[in-house]
Description:
The complex is a heterodimer of chains A (342) and B (577). With 342 residues, chain A is of the alpha/beta class. Helices cover 41% and strands 21% of the residues of chain A. A six-stranded parallel β-sheet of chain A has the order 2-1-3-4-5-13, with helices on both faces. In chain A, strands 7-6-8-11-12-14 form a six-stranded mixed β-sheet, sandwiched between helices. Chain A has a two-stranded antiparallel ribbon with strand order 9-10. Helix content of chain B is 53%, strand content 20%. In chain B, the strands form four sheets. In chain B, strands 1, 2, 3, 4, 5 and 6 form a six-stranded antiparallel β-sheet that branches. In chain B, helix 9 crosses helix 11. The longest helix of chain B is centred in the N-terminal third of the chain and has 69 residues. Chain B is rod-shaped, with a radius of gyration of 64 Å. The relative contact order of chain B is 0.06. Chains A and B meet through helix 3, helix 4, helix 6 and strand 7 of A and helix 2 of B.
Amino acid sequence: MRKKIIWLLSILLICLIISVLPGHGQSGTKIAFFLYNGNDTFITEMMETMTGKIPEDVTYEVCDAGNSQAVQNQQIVERIDGGFDLFIINAVDRLACSSIVEKCSGAGIPVIFFNREPLEDALSGSNVYYVGAAADSLGKKQADMVAALFTERFERSKYDRNDDGIVQLVILKGEQGHQDAEKRTDNCVARLKELGFDVEILAIEVADWNRSDAGEAMERLYVQYGSRIELVFSNNDDMALGAIDYLLKKEVFKEKGPDYDQPFVIVGVDGTAVGLEAIENGLLYGTVNNDFAKQSNAILTLMKYIISNGYLDDFPYIMTNSYYIYIDGDIITRDNLAEYQK
Amino acid sequence: MNRLSRVFKSKSVSSIIVTACVVIVLAFVSSLLFVTFTSFKTGIDGAVNTQIRELSTQIVYNYENYIGGIIETSNIIQTDIDRYDINAEQESGLFGDYLREIIHLNSDILNIAVYDYETGRCLSSSNINETGNVIDDDETNWFQEALDNPTVHVFSIPYSEYGSKEYKVNVSKLIKYHNGGIMGVLKIEISFHRFIELVEKSNLGQGGHITIIDSDYEIVHTSLSDQNAALKEIDVVREIVLGTQSAYLDGYNMTVNVDTLSNTKWRICIFINIDRVMEIERTFLLTIIIITCIILVIGILLFMAAAQTITAPMKQLELAMRKVEKSDYFRMEEVEFAASKEVEALTRRFNRMMRKIGELMENVIAEQAAQRKSELKALQNQINPHFLYNTLDSIMWLIENRKNQEAGEMLVALARLFRIGISNDSEVIPLRDEMEHVRNYLLIQKIRYADSFDYEFQVEEAALDVKTLKLIVQPIVENSIYHGLKNKIDKGMLRISVQIEDDFLFIRVSDNGYGIRQEVIDSLYANFEDGVVSNSVGLKNIYQRAMIYYGGKAEIIIESELDNGTTIIVKEPLKRE
């Protein structure tokens, strides 16, 4: 009798302990996504693309930091002992990455950063990666795209409006200090020079990635420089569309047959749906797609490698400086638009 | 369960009740204590954590706001500098004016200057005197750091210029100016005073403080006056990396919160004193333990009292019973006291039982008296003077006729007859003795009636040792002789047979006399039951003695056939109920 009771009690106790033990019954892979801001459509679209492709045996959780690094830190710290196999982090502040890496590697959790690029000294140790757009390349491709318009040595190029053999351009810059804005801005100009053009930057206007801000910026630029403008580089499609909004209003871009009469062209980056539509309509000359589908694929492939402890020697993406995977974009103009429209 | 009952076996009721109740109460109260304290602790810890988190978030927010202001200023400068070709002297002067305006807008900024990134020559500055000087990069290494980290703002460690007590931080950034064409280094000198002010504003409790470290765990700033203590704490911070943990530092219970500071490589470590919370928890625990003990003590006392109300009347009952047990004669002893319902019921039952016992005792006494009387009658019969006279007369007659032999036998028989009738005090005797008694009686009667009848015994061997009521067969035999055989013309026959059938002893006395008429039999039966104690020594006397002794189990049956004989059957149970 007494033995039976002791047996019963110990079985009960064991059941209790097992049920209390963390991670019990969770045999599959568990990952967590940390987004800098759920209000950023680029990030949420990218997130949707990724979650749509996550294998069924992988459970995941998505955390939105609401643009606060303190909140994101908290979210990471809370999940550090949660039995996660991988953190996929879109950091709020690039400079916080080194602390996050230190914390996660201490807990043995691999980390993939995306979109916000950590400084080189932040990534160290094993199983820490960054997947993002090749910002330098995106800018360069903007230049490559328009090069043809000016290559006829300018005498015959209608885009060299003052026939001085120099490309007078304005730049609509994203956020001041934003890595992508800086890199795109630097590289589009640099590449144009590299291709042998003489370049004169009339002005760089910061429009915070924003369509309406860009409209106002374009107004300032047009009022000041007017007919001197021969080319507009925009750091993204939205700002390019903002500029187009203004130029249509001012009838600088005039409807002419099925197309528009444009004294100069505007190129963007991203390849958003509205951007592609503007290309189709002949308003936006072209864009370089910041291909989040490809980035998502790279992240998911990397995820599988990390989870299955695969050899990264077979990894199908090029690894820069052991930690960085840059996804290049494609030039999209009316010629190849059909390939990218859904 | 066996074991449990074994444990409780022969323990007093009160100790069983008190033990069981104390165990239950103890289990209940301790689980209650555990749940209460756990939920209280979880609750208060949660509240404190939330509070600490909010406080930390607020502090971090303040710092980030402050830093953000500087960064914003820097971004404005970077945007605006695109329009200036500060390599040209005139534009450099104009930009200097612009920078001075900026400084007016932000009191935290002490000085702003832009340097050629190759030569380190100051191109333009809010400090007119500085323009044109080649920098001599100080210990904060801001110039080189800016070149090494081209995409971010570099915050130097705080420093003070020689002879000044004011701490400054250099924020430097590699920039491009003149439409992004030319690179340079922007330096913004900020006062560190506001940083320290922000620390002092926060209420972090006794010993609470803030330490800011860089990515190499070097202290940038600490509000702790003791630098060595601050260094010691860095080990705790190293362990935390990011997040919140409790630690015991320098005599205080602290919650340490480590967070990043946006736009810098710095981390902020906030040490908040939670001694008060621990004190509250300790007090709470102590209070509930004391309350538990009080409840337990009160509980034990209550249970003991409750047990007492049950057991005390029981003890009284027991006392009353013992009195009854000890007394040599039965005396009515009614118990009366106030007690619980059940015990009162028990006492009522006890009293009722005592009354019943009293009644029974009286009955028994009455019955015993009746029995004695009947026996006395039966005995008296033996010394019936007529019988004695007749017997002695017969003996004399035998002697006169020189039948000495028979006279001797008759005397012996008479002597034996009386011996059995008188000698034994017991109501019952072995059947053997009873038969002996009848045999002696028949011997005497047969001699007296000059062999006018014969008799025979058919006694089952097994029945001989069975006990039977004494002096029960002789009166029947006597009746048979007087009423059945005495006046018979031919020779009478008397048969006495004893058998055991179905746990009953059957004693049959049969004669071959005239028989008894049915009315007479009926009136005899009716006479058995009329309740009047018989003075005779006939069948009724036998019947009453048998009823008293065997309590209804015994029977007297009369079977008779006219002119053929009569059988009287005495049916006695082998066991007395």
